From TrEMBL:
It comes from Actinomycetospora straminea. Pfam families: FAD_oxidored, Oxidored_FMN. InterPro entries: Aldolase_TIM, FAD/NAD-bd_sf, NADH:flavin_oxidoreductase, OxRdtase_FMN_N. Keywords: Flavoprotein, FMN, Iron, Iron-sulfur, Metal-binding, Oxidoreductase. Residues 6-316 form the NADH:flavin oxidoreductase/NADH oxidase N-terminal domain. SUPFAM superfamilies: FAD/NAD(P)-binding domain, FMN-linked oxidoreductases, Nucleotide-binding domain. Transmembrane segments: none annotated. In the N-terminal section; belongs to the NADH:flavin oxidoreductase/NADH oxidase family. The lineage of its organism: Bacteria, Bacillati, Actinomycetota, Actinomycetes, Pseudonocardiales. This is FAD-dependent oxidoreductase. Its cofactor is [4Fe-4S] cluster; FMN.
Amino acid sequence: MSVLGEPLRLGPRVVRNRIVFPAHLTNAAVARRPSAQHAAYYGARAAGGVGMVITEEQSVDPADRPYEKLVDGTDPAVVPGYRAIADAVHAHGALVLAQLGHNGGQSSSLYSRAPVDGADDEPDPMFREVPRPLSDAGLARLVDGFGLVAEHVVAGGLDGVEIQCSQASLIRQLFSARSSRALPFLVAVLRAVRSAVGPDGVLGVRVQGDEGFAGGLATSDAVAVAVAVETLVDYVNTAVGVATRTLPLIEPPMGVPAGYAAHVPSAVRAAVSVPVLGVGRFTTPEQAREAVASGSCDLVGVVRGQIADPGFATKALRGGRVRRCIGCNQECIARVGLNQRLGCAVNPAAGRESSVAANGYLAASTRTTSPFARVLVVGGGPAGLAAAVAAARDGHAVTLAERRDVLGGQLAIASRGPERRELANLVADLAHEARDLGVVVRLRTPVEDVHGIDAVVLATGARPALPAWAGGHARVVDVTEVLTGRVAPSGRVLVVDEGRGHAATSTAELLARRGASVATLTPALVVAGDLAPTLDRERWRRRAAEVGIAEYTDRVVLAAHDGLVLDVLHHLTGEVTPWPADWVVHAGPPTPHVPELVTDVPVFRVGDCLAPRGIDAAVREGTAVRERFSRL
């Protein structure tokens, strides 16, 4: 057994292994109380073998409400919800703690209709509200709030509490402001919570390690805080980034390596005697094992990796291939940011565990239909692969036919762009699952006539569509032509973004790094606007500046003339300007590809051939085809 699988004592309790499911927002609360979805969600990770679950933040002040679905832990009505969570997790042998916190100035009056209480009167860069500085009496009131919520947690049967002093936290803000009240307040909170949880409860603290900006808290500050409170706690958790100012440090997108934050737990662990929990975008069992084996932490936090695959822990300890998180942030970070329940692009069941049967996203071991003799899946992109896996799990005899010589569809192409390589992981993981389930995969196999089959899943995707203004010009091409290597634009290259996603930016960066003089142009207010919700935009802007990519917004291409000169309309002035270029690369919405099939059996369209959308829709619809089979 590796160190990852060894039990570890946390004060009065023993955690069965070193893998933790740390606190993160789910947006699953109902009326500010824990819901059945919380219990099902956390229970699924406990069933998957995790050692300890830490719930999302429970507020210690009813007026603290930065987002609509923050649980109000001060309300006694939360206790039954806590009990349901405890029962769901304990049923599978894991520990479960609740994280307690107050958001301070990183909050909003939108829902509370009350002034925001903060460490000082400095507005947060995201919420931009001027806080009301808390008095000593106000801080004392919050100490009582922490104690009250801890009492509710104990009454609900959870194993303990973690105090949030990082990321979105009033306590972090006090330390960041170098307030003399910070440490006394934290100590008072820890003592009040210890009194509530008693000698049998676990008490942890999550400290801020690196705020990510000049003058902010650094690793040395985390060490100082941890040393100051280690006699009061059973473990120390760590974090980097601030939940508004440097959010991409907390939930980094693909391209950021595993262990990027390891310097914080390593430094803390060297200074304290209690166990230390480290986080840092660990998405594979190998990365989790290395984090603990290297000595950088005693416990390893895996959030998105266990959202993507609830069985991550068991597979990490006993062997098995996980369905990897690809760091796209589309359904977890971006969806929660839109006030929707958390989801996952690679795991359609995530965030829907309590209603999974009703939605057709069933566990791999669950069979819902009598198998057809034969199912043909046409198309080997993410939708087709997901459909093949789902159908094979239900006992159908599945053949997948792909006209190209590789699987993956648009993902196989998109993964060739800078910092997009992990898209290929989803293709590889689905392909392995399909083959393990006995799916027959046939490449270079176009399909027109279908005979001797009981059902067809059409997953033929979408194809590029150049705009009318391109006029058939030979040097106006789609981004896919560049990414596949069919063309190699050079000289002055204009990338026209009419799709708002990664297609334009990754292609522009690829060409710039090859030596082209690249500019991006869009009719929107910003280039690739969809990169902001997934936290990719900041990293893109830094890389664009590094390679000299110019950005032009509020501009519409009207026509392309011989020579290659574009007519470009500037929205704001109405001026039409000639724009010379050696190449124009277009990124825009594709067109569904729906081939004519000769067949008399049911045909189910999924993914982009139904309507071009994102990865999440492709995998979700492919997986849900099993439900559609059951209606026949």
